[in-house]
Each structure stands twice: as structure tokens, then as C-alpha cells.
Amino acid sequence: MADFIKIYPENPNQKEIEKVVKVLKEGGLIIYPTDTVYGLGCDITNTKALEKIAKIKGIKLDKANFSFVCSDLSNLSDYVKQIDTSTFKILKRALPGPYTFILPGNNNLPKEFKKKKTVGIRVPDNNIVIEIVKKLGNPIVSTSIKDDDEILEYTTDPELIYEKWNNIVDLVIDGGYGDNEASTVIDLSGHEPEIIREGKGSVEII
Asked: Do 157 and 13 touch, CB atoms closer than 8 A?
């Protein structure tokens, strides 16, 4: 049975944040709020946890297109090849915000992602997840939780999310109602920016 923790985004309680980080460090899976839809995540350095998420999504880990959630742009060089000034300007303008940027990965990617040439980077405009990542000391791997419902693609009520997921994950954060629109995905790994999915973030940014 998963823990269910209420955390307020305006001023996240550090004791609660520490509880979440402990779960992540022990290889647990969490569901947490972002600036778009609720996400399912784990510690990027924990292979077992990564495998669990891939299994939930019904895909092989080396085929998975998970995003890396960072607390700011300073971790970028850990996983991303050197980027040019115009790309950096786009990132600086858009983040934190409701975007996922696909960037060229470097050789420091965790071994599970070594075959990948690109990586999706997120810096959500949400204090809860930013504080979690800061306290953890490295990004969390993330994927959005989709619904089977044909009308509602994403559940926005944390209590309903908990009802559905409490036997699958280790902890669900109630950070208030989520959004039902996913992030805008922009590929910056080629010569020209390419919009992969138009979501909550305005594409005018590029």
C-alpha cells in the first residue's frame, strides 16, 4: 500500500520532501505533481526502479523514452552534449516551464540509456518536484501517467490517482489538482527545432 502525502507547492514541507527522497533512494516509485500532468518517477541511478517503470509502461527499458526531470539547467552537462548558444537561449526562455526538450545525450548517460542518442529534459515549474530533485542530488526519470478512460486522458485528482495506483507505486504526493494537458515536446537535437507534440507550453518560444 503506497503512502499518500500532502505537500503544498507554495512552500513545500522539507520533512515531507525528505520522506519522498528516502523512498526514491531505496528504489521506490513515486507519483508526483508537475506544472502539467502528474508524473510517475524514480531515481535515475536505480536500475531496479527503472525496470519497474518500464514494466508498468509495457516496454523494454532500452526502448523507453523517459524524460529526465532536473531542478535547473546546471545539471544539463551531466547528460547532454555541449549545446550551442541559440539552443541554450531557447532553454533559458522556456524553463522552468511546461516543456520537454529533446537534446543530444552524452557518454555519461546511465548504462540503461547508453544506446540512446538523445534525451528528454524537463524542468517543471513546480516547487515540489524541484525540491525533491535538489534534495535527491540527481534527476528523476519520469513518464506521465495516462488513463484508460477515453474521455479523460489524464487524471487530475490526486485522490483518484492514489486509488488507482496505491498497489503499484510506493508513494503518491497530493500536490493539489493536476493539469490534464501534457508538456509541449520540442526536439532540439537536429539543425532546426522540431515540434514533436504541442501541449501546454506555447510553441512561440522557438
From this structure: no
Please name every residue paired with 31 in a beta bridge, in sequence order, or none if there are none.
40, 172
The residue among 113, 26, 105 whose CA lies nearest residue 61 is: 113
**d(Cα 205, Cα 117) in Å, to the nearest integer?**
24
| pLDDT (0 to 100) of residue 152 | 59
For helices 127-136 and 14-25, the axis angle rounded to 10 degrees is 60
Model confidence, pTM: 0.94
Which residue segments constitute the domains of the chain, with CATH numbers given? 3-197 (3.90.870.10)
pLDDT digits over 38-55, tens only?
A: 999 999 999 999 999 999
Given a contact cutoff of 8 angstroms between Cβ atoms, the answer to whether 100 and 70 are in contact is: no
Distances (CA, A) of 81 to 48, 91, 189: 26, 14, 10
